[in-house]
Amino acid sequence: MELSYYPGCTIKTRARNFEDSAMAVLHELGVNMVELPRWNCCGTVYSLADDDLVHHIASVRNLMHVRKQGHEKVVTLCAFCYNTLHRANDIMRDNAEKRFAINSFMDEEAAYEGQVSVSHLLQVLRDDIGLEKISAKVQKPLDGLKIASYYGCTLLRPKSAAIDNPENPTILQSLVKALGGTPIEFPFATECCGSFQVVDNRDFVNERAYEIINSAVKNGAEAIIVSCPLCEFNLRQAQVKLKQKYTDFKGLPILYFTQIMALSFGLDIKINDFELNSTETQEWLKKEKLVV
Amino acid sequence: MARVELSSKKLHSEFIKKVAEISGQNIYQCYQCGKCSAGCPMCFAMDVLPNQIIRLAQLGLEDEIASSKTIWLCASCLTCDARCPKGVDLSRIMEAMRLLTLRINKNHIEPSKMSTETLAELPAIALVSSFRKLTS
């Protein structure tokens, strides 16, 4: 299977552990990810103003490049990129007036009408590859590991872009199960971590992380998996401050779902770039003998 | 919340029209059930609750909205939108209110005043989305 791949800004820098592990896992599953030869930042957040079309241009340009590349479907790893590209594509497909305005503005490129479909990697794993095939690749099952799945916002909201049931998603838990782990349910799985507020209101984001991580701990989780580089950063960076503030706070390892896939597939440990995860996460991996 | 003064002028203000136009939402649909505030992940830090913001908007109380921190604490997580029984997308109303300030070139945060340490520590996804949401 060959798929067009849109990386995005953070995947190529801070979240290389996400990209490298995803590429290795997909290679193992027989998927050839062809990176878009020309891509630009999607803008990270979808504009919520009705009269603001200019902020959709960056996303639409990427979608035009997918067509030029000869592909009908583009896949992202980053949950933010998925959301922004998906919703820009919806406008181009469903809103004739806005489509006309955007195409007229971008008149140096071939008109675009939303022909491409935008998928998140989790959808590809569930719908195109199938969990059975993933299960068959498992060499070192995550026996007994209790893993909480944290979805955040952009894979589930708005409903038009949801990859699963927005209030009760199961895709990550099913994946954990397929890898031999024990999925842990917790009530904060779809609650926002505070997102970009980390720039201006870090203390508030840290409090969000406190609630989310503690809720996972209370329900018996030993680690949290994520699919968004901003959730990963927020939940990871907060733990240093939270340990100073709350003496009873123990914290949890934060991993990308592709990293636990690579571990269970028994792939070369280097492709996980664990040095980009927290020191505590690395120590935990050693303690659990997931990394030798 | 402090005492507010209502007037016919405020009820028919340009502010209400602009919020409706930019957000594409009918703010009068809201009947104050409070589900938006109940589910809001940032409301613990807000001085005015999300459902109160929409009530203030219905009454044209622009100054009360402008003096609260609420619209700048909204993280656009869309939980309010997902749960509103009347189909009002409050996240779009919050965005419209922010834009009324940002579009007169008033930034809420100043990237040029951020320390190089902070800029180096934060991932691009955090910086780009924050600048998109909070600067003109």
Attribute tags:
heterodimer, A: about 290 residues, alpha/beta, Glutathione S-transferase Yfyf (Class Pi), Chain A, domain 2, Rossmann fold, four-stranded parallel sheet, 11 helices, B: about 140 residues, mainly alpha, 2 domains, 10 helices
* Strand residue content of chain B: under 5%
Helix content of chain B: 40-55%
- The number of distinct structural domains of chain B comes to 2
**CATH class group of the largest domain in chain A:** Alpha Beta
Physical arrangement of strands within the biggest beta sheet of chain A: 2-1-3-4
Count of the domains of chain A? 2
**What is the H/E order of chain B?**
HHHHHHHHHH
Helical/strand content category of chain B: mainly alpha
Helix amount of chain A = 40-55%
Mean pLDDT figure of chain B: 96
The N- and C-terminal alpha carbons of chain A lie at a distance of 33 Å
